[in-house]
Amino acid sequence: MMTTGPGGHGQTRRLALFGTKGVVSRCRDFTEQALADWGWTAAGPEGPSDVVEDVLLLVSELVTNACLHAGGPEELVLSRSAEWLRVEVADADPRRPRRKVQSDLSRPGGHGLIIMERLAHSWGSEPRGTGKVVWLEVRLSPARGQRMSRP
Fold it and tell me: Which one of 8, 29, 88, 118 is most buried, by most CB atoms within 10 A?
């Protein structure tokens, strides 16, 4: 489902989700298709777009975290404007995400929030119904969809 925001400047796509089996790849495919439809492709004349790869990794992390810590995601929402992409993953668990304290960063697991902090312009969570939404935003260049430098 796609809706257009005020004045036609933004668009939103929603994907309802049930269960955890295959949900990460479904969300990545959905996101990749939305970005392609919006003119942000993973491979262009200058090679892979870093921002598309970053967004796909960020979607994977959000959805995986919902699977591991919140019983699975209920909805993926992608909203975009000319300069921003917002990704939201809703789940039924009201607990906010928190970073695990790890003494050995070389061990697998527990790096999702670190990745979000490094690749997203901003991220957070907010209560929604009896659960929450974890969101992130990626700033895009209006001209080519490339990530702009952070302020």
Answer: 88
Closest CA to 15 of 74, 58, 76: 76
Please tell me the pTM assigned to this model: 0.79
Q: Average pLDDT, stretch 104-118?
A: 68
Q: Which helix or strand (DSSP H or E) is residue 52 part of?
A: helix 50-69
- Long-range contacts from 71-74, C-beta under 8 angstroms, 24+ separation: 72/17, 72/18, 72/19, 72/20, 72/23, 73/17, 73/23, 73/27, 74/16, 74/17, 74/18, 74/131
- DSSP line for 129-151: TTEEEEEEEEEB-TTT-PBPPP-
